[in-house]
TrEMBL record:
WD repeats lie at residues 136-169, 188-230, 282-312. Gene3D superfamilies: YVTN repeat-like/Quinoprotein amine dehydrogenase. Signal peptide: none annotated. This is Anaphase-promoting complex subunit 4 WD40 domain-containing protein. InterPro entries: Quinoprotein_ADH-like_sf, WD40/YVTN_repeat-like_dom_sf, WD40_PAC1, WD40_rpt, WDR18/Ipi3/RID3. Residues 459-482 are annotated as: Disordered.
Amino acid sequence: MRLSVSAIRIEREMGNGGEALVACSDRSMGTGIAIWDIRTGDPLLHIPTCASPPHGLLCLGNQFLVASQVNKHGSVGGGAIFTWPLKKSQSPLRSYPIEAIGPISCTMDGVYLAGGAPSGNVYIWEVANGRLLKTWRAHHKSLKCMAFSNDDSVLISGSDDGMICVWSMVSLLDMENLESSPSLLHYSSEHRSSISGLLTTSSANSTFISSSLDGTCKAWDLVSGRLIQTQEHPLGITAIVLHPAERFLLGGSIDGRIFVSVLNIGLVDDPFVVAEDQLFVLEGHKGSITALAFSTLGLISASEDGTVRLWDAISWVTIRRFNYQKAGAVTNLALIPHSSLLTSSNHQRVPYQIRLSLLEKCPQPEANSSKGTVALLHSCSSLKDHQTSLDFRTNSLNHQIFEMEEAHTPAALQMKLETSIDNRMWATRMTKHVMEINKHLQSRLLDLMQNRLLWSAEDDSPTARKSKKLKIGSPSLEGEKL
């Protein structure tokens, strides 16, 4: 029953018009992006001039395709991020960050875009105006993959040395401290090789999954960073995906096999290991698995052998095979509603229209604005009252949890987890409010600094010095001071 409900949920998200499969390679810019109808296998659209690294392609709000571009000759500078509107036939919006960008990720609402660089730097942009909100050195090695939590409260990043970091979005969106490093909630160095995949669950357990070329997949508690489960495979894992029911984890390996294993991430006392003999194996690809995804029709896998396969999720046999021209490896997969490719003359409308702008290279100060001072004071007072109320509720809940823990009840752990999730969601909502306050305060501060510089310049001018000499001893000016 859970499988059927999950399929219905995906079908609703994708719309009644079915799904379209998007694929691209990192081998040649001329090969571009290929889009097929999953149900019929017919090609729908070809977008030229795109070569995207692994985890470098995503669909933004079912309205845009966003792809980071492979940097030529492996140099650090000269990165590019291209954005194509799906509803219109026009040239892509080309943004050129200060350095090459590899993996990218976006929030569920499409408001923020994150990008990771080979240098270990991470960038956060606000999509609507293209503003670079934050950039910092997140890892010592190259970024390999990134993922936002389902409630957009945290950003998870994985690097080439096996390190995983979990960052607070409240800290990332703090516009008052652009130069400071954001708060690191927790990190892990359990993996012994490069991180190849990151994904979060939609269940109330608040967990995320990581995979690595060391042959392991690990389940983590998102709040505490505690290791819940480890799955061991005979070969390096290059891509992962969750079954829609979130009861099975599928991992693609470097030899083309796909391992299917049971994912048990309930509330357990100690982490445990799923051995190799507990895995079900799918075989069919002749090259390393590069990407995995689930559609309403089944599992979709891409490989370095240049093919994309659609597998039936019950019999686990190949239903359809897509050939990605002659360029070789398919590095990225994405699923979009078929209706997203229709022209704007069609009567189907999206819930809200996402605005896009060119992405900035460096953080910029906010434009001057002196409006809303009185409203800001009231907002600050309201925010303080809200925080006081939240502290009271939190203390009350903590007292209840403590009493339940004294009785050694499982409900205490569940309540503790739900309380933490609620607090994170509230903090994310309040961040936008605080950001608006910071913008006005920063603008006011810049105005005052600019006026002081102008006054200083006028005081140092020859005319001002001469005027001061004439004013000395004048009775009419006695007692007048600025």
